Amino acid sequence: MNDELQKKVAEAIRDPKNVGEMADADSVGTVGNSECGEMLRLWVKYREQDGEKVIDKASFQSFGCETAIAVASLATELIQGKTAAEAMEMKPEELSGELGPLPPMKIHCAELVQGALRDALSPESQAVGQAESPAKPDGLAPTLRDSLNEGQAKSGSINIQFLDE
Predict the structure, then answer these.
(1) N or C: less crowded end of the chain, CB within 10 Å?
(2) Which 3-state string (H, E, C) describes the chain?
(3) 31 with 136: CB under 8 angstroms?
(4) Chain-centre distance of CA 115, in angstroms?
(5) What is the number of other CB atoms lying within 10 angstroms of the CB of residue 88?
(6) Of the residues 13, 36, 127, 160, which is catalytic?
(7) pLDDT tens for residues 104-117?
(8) Residue 11: which residues within 8 A CB-CB, separation 6 or more?
(9) Is 65 labeled as catalytic in the residue annotation?
């Protein structure tokens, strides 16, 4: 990764935006694989604006590298005010925002965010607490840790691989 991109990622990581679960989310999207260690969950809340449903706010949790966290932070800001259709059309390079073009070895970070966004905005995800992601007793959608624990219970172990930066 070049020095300029490393600086931008470090700045985004110092003060990430919209980190954490959103209790009143209208939809939740999760993408990743507990076996490779990168997972991202994205919560979306809508509001009415000029007779259209637009994204009011979004938040995320991530088990991934710093670049994935930086892209998720920027993307949650970039999608505010967009309709679901507009946000779903965004390409990974658009979601990386002010980070600019990512090197080939980091493009998957923006694709991870795009996947979680598309999962959250798909018609099947428009209700929190789907059959495969039941809500917890406190009304919140399962966290990434819950998902990992569920994967561990099914397979007996989790293999997390740390990525070199």
Answers:
(1) C
(2) CCHHHHHHHHHHHHCCCCECCCCCCCEEEEEEECCCCEEEEEEEEEEEECCEEEEEEEEEEEECCHHHHHHHHHHHHHCCCCEHHHHHCCCHHHHCHHHCCCCHHHHHHHHHHHHHHHHHHCHHHCCCCCCCCCCCCCCCCCCHHHHHHHHHHHHCCCCCCCCCC
(3) no
(4) 8
(5) 15
(6) 36
(7) 988 989 999 999 99
(8) none
(9) no
Catalytic residue among 95, 109, 140, 148: 109
Distance, in Å, from the CA atom of 9 to the CA atom of 123, rounded to the nearest integer, reads 32
Contact 74, 13 (CB under 8 A): no
Does the structure show a pLDDT above 80 at 165? Answer: no
The pLDDT mean for the chain works out to 80
How many Cα atoms sit within 13 Å of 93 on the Cβ side?
Answer: 5
Burial of 138 (0-12, 13-18, 19+ CB in 10 A): exposed
- CA atoms 108, 143, 10, 160: torsion sign: negative
37, 160 Cβ separation under 8 angstroms: yes
Q: Quote the crossing angle between the two packed helices 3-14 and 66-78, to the nearest 10°.
A: 70
